[in-house]
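hiii, so i know i said id send this last week but things got crazy w the move. better late than never?? heres the sequnce for the chain we talked about at the cafe, plus the structure i predicted for it. fair warning i was half asleep when i ran it
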Amino acid sequence: MQALVCIGCVNAGLLLGEGSSNASFPFSPIRFICLIGWVYLCLYSVQSVQFGLLVPKKRKRIANVAALFIGPLLLFVLLIMDTAKKAAESSRSFFEVIWEQLQNIAANIRSSGLFGSRDDSTLKIFDSSGRNIKEIYSHGKSSRDIRTLELTEQIITKALEERASDILIDPKDESKYVIRLRVDGMLRAVDQIEAETCQAVINSIKVVSSMDIAERRRPQDGAFMAKTGGGTVSFRVASAGVLNGEKLSVRVLNQNAGAFKLDNIGMSEKQQVIIREEITKPAGMILLCGPTGSGKTTTMYAMLNEIDLFTRNVITVEDPIEYVLPDASQIEVNPKADITFAKALRSIFRQDPDVICIGEIRDEETAGIALRASQTGHLVLATIHSDSNASALIRLLDLGVTPLLMSSGLSMVVSQRLLRKLCEDCKVRAELSPGQISEFHKKGINYSNIFQAKGCKKCWDTGYRGRIAVFDILVLNDQLKANIANSQLFITEMKKEGEQKGRSNLCKQGLKQVVCGITTLGELKRTIG
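okay and structure toks below
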């Protein structure tokens, strides 16, 4: 028994690699682990040789066989040869190239999340087909490419964090580019970048937007998307050649538009009742007007969210689709594929629609089809660029719509503006002049709750954070429709009076927001006048 115990102890010592130098066992745990590690290194070397650029294609078969036996050694030799070749071609020292490759390895390890779980909120940029920007742009995976992609992601992440609607990349001079963000309708510079570095950033955005990076003079359009922890965001890109370089404009499409309803975009209860009454009707046309960036599309989505999409067939034609409505059919305009607003509208009449939504009326054909659709039992929602309700009617006439067609198809016109809201963390009581106080007394307005902007870190020292809309609603009753149909001159006269009346209505709605402490008198004057 004692002999067996002694033999067991000797065997245990041998397995642990202990004992005299003469006694050794070929399959000790340490050697076994080293063998497994060597096998995996050899397999990794084979993969690097097969899919890498270190070995010419015609010699890959021989290199793969060699890598199975001396894998890490072969890979090390190949890397040294490749480093020496790059150093000779780039007129840099051997150690500079080695340092660059070490930086690349460190960056790849950081991006892979090998030593920690990756943050789900990290921005990931994709093209329209779903390919990652790193697959498209960083083929060589050099440190310069990695830094360019990191800077691109930082710019887009900052824009999303600050709720920017646009990202503008402009050449300041031959050596500098300026990065500006449009937040709450106002532009502000956030960074200045060297021209060479910024051109690489522009190329990365153009690549993921399916644009030609070699063309820097002619205007181009494209689109891409990004995934964050909060969901997917779409971007629309436009480039143009300008003095000292190339200008890039990136529009951030409103990812929250589908969550808005009439009661949270600034409409009064009375206005909500009027709108809801119109959108429950089976036919008619509601036209939303205002300048660029006044929130027309958001209001249109708010109206669509008030419609029962289960009982009514809703089809939209947009350029581009800004928010996905799960229970609606959405068509995106694509001029390259010969899909225009007019052609899409003609085709959807065979889809038995109840509600037709048009992203923007731009030409005579689209305007005519939309108004005729409202006459044939369809509810039509559309937007148009104009300053007021009255000028929207003039705009339709300019597009070639007859007064008779306009009067019979149009039911309501809504013009709007966006006012910046005061930052709740830093707003202070307004210092009113004696003249302003006297004016408020005459009109019987309580001015005790009027505030003014101050500025803090949370609002980036602007004093404002977020925006709210004000509306002017014109319902076309039978008398007004008859006047429009009988006389084109009436519309011209109406425009003269309507411009002043519309601005007065918008001022009245905006003043309510001022008295409630939501915005300021200065912002009201800046936006409406």
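btw DSSP finds 17 helices and 16 strands in the chain. thought thatd interest u
miss u guys!!
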